[in-house]
Every structure is written in structure tokens, then in C-alpha cells.
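INTERNAL TRANSFER SHEET
From: sequence group
To: structure group
Subject: Small, acid-soluble spore protein gamma-type

Please process the attached sequence and return the structure record in the designated field. Keep the field labels unchanged so the import script can parse them.
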Amino acid sequence: MKKQTNKTTSGTNAEQVKQQNAAANKQYGTEFASETNAAEVKRQNQQAEANKKNASQQNNQQNR
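Return from structure group:
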């Protein structure tokens, strides 16, 4: 039996999957991770933590 090209052993057409992925990227844009600035996210997370600590300290002082 002749092996069909571009198909996996389970019968998936690899070329069709590539085309579907390309179409999805056009529809939804590029990967989110490629647009993420890791340093900026870390800075924002640190700021959020600092804000939570400040709010907690202020709340504790008001409750005394």
C-alpha cells in the first residue's frame, strides 16, 4: 500500500492543519506571548503587591 504524503499515522492531514493555523493567526492575530513585555508585567505585578500591602497596613491601622 502506498503511503499518503502529508498525513500522520492517525490520518491527520498536516498540510491542512498548517493552513488552518495560518488562517486562525490572521483572524485572531499573532500569539499573545509574542506581544507580552515580560519586564512590564513584572513591574505591574510588583506595583500591585505593593498596593495590596499598603492597603492592608492602612486597614490594620484604622481597625486599632
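Handover comment: The first helix runs from residue 14 to 28. The chain has two helices and no strands.
Transfer complete.
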